[in-house]
């Protein structure tokens, strides 16, 4: 239930944060920057099944309600949850490495929840596991590929 309510808060949180941004690196708003409904979806479209064993598209983790999970969409967006806080952003793949970009995350204080997933800057598909690393290249953990019924 916590995950479901947090996922509803993420789009509102992202909208509020986008209103606060406006630094020199921020592009000017345009009609082409409006997110599509799929950009904020909590799960990928079943028709977006992984094309290969190295494809990041799909669900990783989330075997139980409170376990970390990441969903990657073919549109270059992702959403996730660490068991308490929700996150979303974009991703870009170069070779085997996938960089997470423009990550936004709720900041709910939850006792006993490890926030390791919030430190992730890059991921890499290794068979049926997703390796998560931080900015320094240190391994943070792995998430297993989850088969989502379509």
UniProtKB/TrEMBL annotation:
The keyword Signal applies. Residues 26-52 have a biased composition (Low complexity). Residues 21-63 are annotated as: Disordered. Residues 1-21 form the signal peptide. Keywords: Signal. The keyword Signal applies. It holds the Pfam family META. Residues 66-140 form the DUF306 domain. InterPro entries: DUF306_Meta_HslJ, HslJ-like_sf. This is DUF306 domain-containing protein. The lineage of its organism: Bacteria, Bacillati, Actinomycetota, Actinomycetes, Micrococcales.
